[in-house]
Design a protein that fits this description.
The protein is of the alpha+beta class. It is built from seven helices and 19 strands.
Length: 449
Amino acid sequence: MPDSRPPTPPAAATPRPTTTRPATPSRPTTPRIPPRTTPRPTILCKPTAPTQSALSARLPAVGLHNIPYQNICRSIWRAPILAPLALQIACAPVDRAFAAPQSPLQVSPLDLVLGPTAFDAMGSASVSVSNPDSVAVTVQLSLLGDAPDLDRVLQLRPSEDLVLEPGQSQRLDLDFHPLSPDPVQARLLLEVEGATPVEVGITATVDPDGDDDGSPHPLAGGDDCDDTDPDIRPGATEIWYDGVDQDCDGRDDDADGDSFPRADDCDDHDARVYPGASDIVDGIDEDCDGVMDEDGAGPGTALLSELFVENHSTSKTWDRAFELYLKGGVGVEGWTLASDAGSGTLRLLDGATGPWLLLCSPADAVSEATCGAVVEPWPAPATSADGLVLSVQGVEVDAVRWTGAWGLAGGELQLDRGAAEGTDPAINDASSAWCAGLPSPGAENSSCP
C-alpha cells in the first residue's frame, strides 16, 4: 500500500569551523654552483702514457686496451681480499709487474772484441755459456747486425741451437773474415724460452795493412797483392820465373812485358819478340815460329856465294859445303835449301855471324869450326848438272843452276865479291859471275880476275 506520509525535508548542512594555518616562512635562496673546470684527478690504477709505451714494447702481443685497469679498480672494494694482488698487478711499474724471468744462463764475456784482423787472416774469439739450473734448457742462437754479408763476415761455431744439461758448459767460437775496412758491430742473442734473452755485444776491427809493408790490401784501397808477406808489394825486386809475383805487376813469367809468358815467348827478354809479331829482316825470329825474317825477305836478300867449297889447307875436300852472302843482317834460321835430289832446312849454329855464312852437312859440322849453319837433311846436289834454290816459307830468295861446262867437277867456284855485294838479285845466275880461286869458307870472297 503506498506510503501516504509527506516527504521529510532534507536536514540543513552543519557548517564546519574554519582553521587558519600560520604562514610558513620562505627558504633562503641557495646560489648555483658553477660546473667543475679543473681536470679530474687521474684514476689511481690507470698507467700513464710512458708506462703504456713501455708495456707495449715489452709485451707486444698484449695490447693495453685488453687490460681492464678501471674494472680492476672498481672491483677492489667489492672483493677486499683481492685488493693487494690487484693493486700490485695494475698499479706497479710495468717493468716489474710484467718483466720476463731472468735467463738461467751464465754467459761470459758479454762484450766480445775481435781484431784488428788483416784481410787475408781470420780473427777468432769465444764465449762461454753455462747452465747452472737444475733442468736442461734449449738455447736458441741468433747473430744480428747491419753489416753487409754478415753471415760471411762473422761465423759462429756451433751455429745450431744448444741443449745444455744441468751444470753443462759450452764454448761458442766466433770467426771474423774482413770484407771491407769498416769495423763491424753485431749482437749475439742467447734465448731460453720464457726468459729474458742474454745479449753479447760484438766489435770487430780491421787491419788494412796486414804485413806492415806500407802497401795496404786492395780491399782497403791499396795494391798489395799479398798482404801477408812484407817482401811482396809494389816496387819490390822481381825474381823472375820463381812462381812469385814480388812486385805485384801481375807477371812473374813475362820479363819483357809483352804479355806472353816464357813458355810461349822464344825470347822473354826482348819485348819485340813474341808469337804473332812482324818478322822483319834483322836476324831475329820475332814471331817465334822458328823461321827468321820471313816477313822482310825477298829476292836477293841472300845469295849463294860459293859452291862445293874445298879446304886446301887440309887433305879433306869439302864436297858438301856451300856459302851464302847475307845482306842487311838477314837471318836464315828455318830457311830451305833444295836441289834436284832433295831439300833440307837451315839451322844456325851458336856463334854464327855474317855476312859470309858457310853451310855444311851435319857430318862436316861436327869437325869443322867454320861452319855457321847446318842443312838437314843435306840436299846432295850433283856437280855435273844440278842447281840450288834458297827460299823461306815459299818465297824464293836465290837460285843457281849449273851445267858440266861450269867445271864444278874439278873444284869449287866462288862468286865475284863485287857481284855478291851488288844489288842485282840475279847476278849469280850466269857462269861469268863465278870463278875458280882459293876458297874462303865463311870469309870475304875475292874479286874474280
